[in-house]
Specification:
The structure holds three protein chains of three kinds. By secondary structure, chain A is an alpha+beta fold. Chain A contains nine helices and 20 strands. In chain A, helix 2 crosses helix 3 and helix 2 packs parallel to helix 4. Chain B is an alpha/beta fold. Chain B is 40% helix and 20% strand. In chain B, the strands form two sheets. Chain B has a five-stranded mixed sheet with strand order 2-1-3-10-4. A five-stranded mixed sheet of chain B has the order 7-6-8-5-9. In chain B, helix 5 links the parallel strand 6 and strand 7. Chain B starts with a helix and ends in a 6-residue tail after the last helix. Chain C is mostly helical. Chain C has a domain of 162 residues: MetI-like fold (Orthogonal Bundle). The chains are: A alpha+beta, B alpha/beta, C mainly alpha. Chains in contact: A-C, B-C. The interface between A and C is medium-sized, with 27 and 19 residues.
Amino acid sequence: MALSFSARLQERGFDVAFEVGDGERLAVLGPNGAGKSTLLGVLAGTVRPDTGRAELDGEPLFDVAARRWPAPHRRRVGLLAQDPLLFPHLTVLANVAFGPRAAGVGRPAAEQAARTCLAAVEAEHLAGRRPAQLSGGQAQRVAIARAVATDPRLLLLDEPLAALDVTLAPLVRRVLRQVLVGRTSVLVTHDLLDALLLSDRVVVLDAGRVVEAGPTAEVLRHPRTPFAARLAGLNLLLGTAGPAGVTTAFGLHVGASTAGLPAGSPVAAAFAPSVVSVFVDAPHGSPRTVLTARVVELEPYADEVRVTTETTSGETVTAAVTAAAVGELDLYPGRAVHLAVKATAVTVYPV
Amino acid sequence: MRPRSRVAPALASTALLALVAACGATPGASGPTSSSAGTQTLTVFAAASLKQTFTTLGTTFEAAHPGTTVTFSFAGSSDLVTQLQQGAPADVFASADTKNMQKAVDDQLVAGSPVDFATNTLEIAVPPDNPAGVTSFADLTRPGVKVVLCAPQVPCGAAAQTIEKATNTTLEPVSEENAVTDVLGKVTSGEADAGLVYVTDVKGAGDQVKGIPFAESKQAVNTYPVAALSGSRQGELAGQFVRLVTGTEGQKVLADAGFGPA
Amino acid sequence: MARRWSGVPLWVYVPATLGALFVVLPLVAMATRVDWARFGALVTSPASLDALGLSLRTSLASTLLCLVLGVPMALVLARTAFPGQRVVRALVLLPLVLPPVVGGIALLYTFGRRGLLGHALEVLGLQVAFSTTAVVLAQTFVSLPFLVVSLEGTLRAVGQRYETVAATLGAGPTLVLRRVTLPLVLPGLLSGSVLAFARALGEFGATLTFAGSLQGVTRTLPLEIYLQRETDASTAVALSLLLVAVAVGVVGLAAGRTGRVL
């Protein structure tokens, strides 16, 4: 079920086109308001674009110019939202059997299919319960079963794990990973792990346009947009290649190996926060880039602290330091600091 | 915050007082007591059917008694008696029947004895185009003629019932209304082919209905009594109003409206 | 039971209590006037039983009619957008603020013999005026907005997300309505129906104006109470209490079903 998609919606400044291969899992990333919900709405049939066309497995899914705009229930496009949205008045089994029943399958066969789907999400024992009696993770697993019970040609996932407690997410993520095998799907997410584990390819949307696209691992290793870099947890500086580093548009220079890249060509320099050292007094010697900056924000992150700074040239650079270091260095927002970045820890690639 | 929390309940109770004051200001409450020097108010409780005639007479009375204002409360006679029994202050009571006046007499609400001042009889009211071609009381029993009456519980209905019994006829009304106005409404809108109402009601409705007098109506003559009330603080003035109603001038106004002599 | 902090200022309890008393006290006062020795006999007289039976039957019929017409109306108002929708909503809700008598007059000019549709209905052999159908129409006219408002609110509160999911599962609009939307808004549907039923039960003005008043045909309980009040106050009071009891019973039943009062 390969998908090709293009649509424009003037009112929302939306103009997006992409393709998804048969059985390929696509992740859609982007800041709030980038057009991710619009994209899902157009595919599901709840948001009608001004122009646009989509083909699923060679058949038109919709074609606005040809006045072909099937209602959501005629598309066989499944939707899994952030909230499970299980019908509260139906049992778990009846919820999962809802799709097959709507397709005209008899009750016994529909319930049999529902049990199979529940088993696939490790929720068979919940069949007789009411949605109100389920935990968040259980409810979302049932919702997954319900979404795949109709065997949709395309499965849309709208931040399916965002509403779950961190302790519950792993099981649901694992279940989802199994279910998505071989299934053409479009996943909207803000989560690095979801993108890594539940997608083969990503597109990054910003302000209604595709700004970056590529295989998931590649995009997250070598991000080209600030959003992808932030999601990947990397510092990203865009600039031009020089003999011994990268110079940004603001004039900031970061030392790095630029072997093989023509001088003056547009490149990205990416480096992890953990390779950025923070000093109060300027450090001396060593082949390091030293930047002067001001602390903007301190944020605990796992067992360390992320220090977001703004360099004097106006770039944002994040450093990871230990909690103890925050105390020793007396870091606080507004504090002037020096940042050191080892040249060998900076990856440079063309953009 | 401390001072404000004391203001709020004060505001609430003020609002409540205002409400009570507003509710207390019913027309009856301030009725019969003469107000400021030189002016006085006479409150008259009169049957609804007397609205036109008594309003005219009120103007006459005010002209003859400078500084006097006459206020009326027009309603069903039984409503008015109930109000009087509950202590509504009034100076004069004019009832559309003797039965309700008797209630007032029994409860010693009346000063002196009531005087009958008018009579009223029923008439057939039909829409101007008289679609069912009704010309007589007997026509009302014709099948297919939609007749609307007052319910036997109200005076106009009781009168109709009396006529039915006396003439040994049975009317089959499509509706038994609570008031003459409801009967007239059904006739003027053309829903009903005919209704039985008082002569005065037909006259009052003007061109909207046509009245058809019928001889059988003599079987039920409604008598209107009027009396000054014992609770009045201006008995003299109340007596003068009663005399106006029963005198030559009052009788002429009533006769013009279709009332018969008492 | 643990007492939760309410955050309500203490003085609020004073007007709140006064408000509750304002509603409850008149009912208590009425109950004290009931002639309990004769209560059973008064409410089981043929006229009373006819009125009660008619009220229950017509209120039930009008509630069903409200459901048939009101559910689609609420759906269209809550789920769709069309030019002039606000105007349409305002017009549909008009009977809420309209004096019932005005509603009755409007119905008369629509369904009456000389009304807009009256002639067409007559050709079809349907005569609405003075029939039980007229009572049901009058009740439906005044109670429909209650159902529509209540249901539209619930529909908006529930939102469209469940419906979207159901559609992506392949369910067509009718199936979604039947299997998802209606079950989800059942509490609102129930409370709306109860409101409509209660409003129909109490309907007076429009019925009196439009349908007339005849025992067993158009004289519902409120009309019977109003009529009895003319002659027999004790029956009126007894029937009033009966009406209150029926209304409380219906509301209580619904509260028990949905676990909340409307």
